[in-house]
Amino acid sequence: MASHLGHVHLVVSDLDRALSFYTDLLGLSVTEQQANYAFLSFGEHHHDLALQARPGASSPPPNSRGLYHVAFELDSPAELRECYEWLHGREIGVQPVDHGISKSLYFDDPDGNGIELYIDTRDDDGERWSGHNTRFDPMAL
């Protein structure tokens, strides 16, 4: 049986642009790069994110089946705020959502892949998501 998600593999149209985006925003390191592939890691595994360039690739149409988004958990409210500032500074549209058990930033990467950055805000008593979704101010974190 599987014990954890091994990695996420995304198709991008411009490998250099995607590498810059993910290394600058999330601090991922490139562990290997071959032709139109790059492998990025947070440090414990060979790669947590694989990028494959396909020039001219397009995003799936809205409401189609497939991957909705990839989520990355951050360690602190300060990190979430810093990521918001980074995205805002590059004029990347962000939807901040407070789920009650987490605070999330939803946005698209340069190729239209859905991304979520979040912090877990659950308490230790096994709190569950109640369907709570409201906007919050990331700068107040």
Automatic annotation (TrEMBL):
Recite the UniProt keywords alphabetically.
Aromatic hydrocarbons catabolism, Dioxygenase, Iron, Metal-binding, Oxidoreductase
Q: Which InterPro entries match?
A: Glyas_Bleomycin-R_OHBP_Dase (IPR029068), Glyas_Fos-R_dOase_dom (IPR004360), Glyoxalase_1_CS (IPR018146), VOC_core (IPR037523), Xdiol_ring_cleave_dOase_1/2 (IPR000486)
Please tell me whether the keyword Oxidoreductase is annotated for this protein. Answer: yes
Q: Which GO terms describe its molecular function?
A: dioxygenase activity; ferrous iron binding; lactoylglutathione lyase activity
Give the Gene3D superfamilies listed for this entry. 2,3-Dihydroxybiphenyl 1,2-Dioxygenase, domain 1
Q: Where is the VOC domain?
A: 4-120
Q: Which cofactor does it need?
A: Fe(2+)
Is Cell inner membrane among this UniProt entry's keywords?
no
Supply the Pfam families for this chain: Glyoxalase
Q: Which domain of life is it from?
A: Archaea
Question: Which family does the UniProt entry place this protein in?
Answer: Belongs to the extradiol ring-cleavage dioxygenase family.
Q: What is the name attached to this protein's record? A: Biphenyl-2,3-diol 1,2-dioxygenase
Question: What taxonomic ancestry is recorded?
Answer: Archaea, Methanobacteriati, Methanobacteriota, Stenosarchaea group, Halobacteria
